[in-house]
Design a protein that fits this description.
Number of strands: 0
Number of helices: 11
Structural class: mainly alpha
Helix content: over 70%
Shape: globular
Strand content: under 5%
Order of helices and strands: HHHHHHHHHHH
Mean pLDDT: 89
Distance between the termini: 23 Å
Low-confidence stretches: none
Number of domains: 1
Radius of gyration: 17 Å
């Protein structure tokens, strides 16, 4: 891709990914990683993802009602996510592009299937003590290998019985930790290039503008219907990534 086309391509993807996040409260890194990986190695896509993901997730967690309480409750999971993501980032940084793309497609396909089947977890207070760290290490290794941080953290957090605003804030907190850990992991494994960081900075504005568009859409369409279309499209994208890689 030429520099101009690459910049326009990145901006358009983050406009779309931001709009998805504006409607359903998540999906920016998932959509961006999937679409960027169609035209570049997943490690480069993950590097471009860092700045817009960090800023939009900090925005999301800052708007919630009880950040300190969520940190006290979720810190074991968050700590394990951070450590395992940083270590596992060597997978996306060092594996062949086809292997990383196949892993990414598999993770997205699992997430899409869970969404379409309306899969829900119910986590009791007793189970939370051991389930949090278990979910954290699984999420971290998937993040490090694929650049996506939704499985299984999102279903787990949804199963804790949090109020809607608390859940949105908890997702923003988890995604922020994952983003920082992924960035440090890529830096540690020498997978951060200047051009990717430059594109990442460029992607901030369209991502934020996309979130504003998504908020406008959310007030006019059924979020549940939008989620079904989102997961269906994500599943097709995942199948394409797996097929192309294999």
């Amino acid at each position: 891709m030429t520099l101009t086309f690459a910049t326009a391509y990145v901006a358009l993807i983050f406009l779309l990914a931001g709009a998805v996040k504006g409607v359903v409260g998540l999906g920016l890194p998932t959509v961006a990683m999937g679409l960027l990986s169609l035209r570049m190695p997943p490690a480069e896509a993950a590097a471009i993802l860092l700045l817009p993901s960090f800023i939009t997730n900090v925005w999301q967690l800052a708007e919630g009602p009880r950040l300190a309480g969520l940190v006290r409750r979720l810190w074991p999971m968050l700590l394990v996510i951070f450590a395992s993501t940083a270590v596992a980032a060597g997978v996306i940084a060092s594996t062949k592009s086809t292997v990383a793309s196949a892993l990414l497609g598999g993770a997205l396909l699992l997430y899409a299937a869970a969404g379409l089947l309306n899969f829900h977890m119910n986590v009791s207070a007793q189970a939370e003590r051991w389930a949090g760290p278990a979910v954290g290490i699984t999420t971290g290794f998937i993040t490090g290998a694929t650049g996506t941080f939704v499985v299984p953290a999102v279903p787990y957090l949804a199963g804790l019985g949090l109020a809607r605003d608390e859940l949105v804030q908890a997702l923003g907190l988890s995604f922020t930790v994952s983003t920082v850990a992924l960035g440090l992991g890529l830096l540690w494994h020498d997978a951060l290039e200047f051009q990717a960081i430059s594109n990442s900075a460029i992607a901030i504005v369209p991502a934020l503008f996309g979130m504003l568009i998504g908020g406008w859409i959310r007030r006019r369409v059924s979020p549940e219907r939008f989620r079904r279309w989102f997961f269906a499209g994500l599943g097709l994208l995942a199948l394409h990534l797996v097929y192309s890689a294999l």
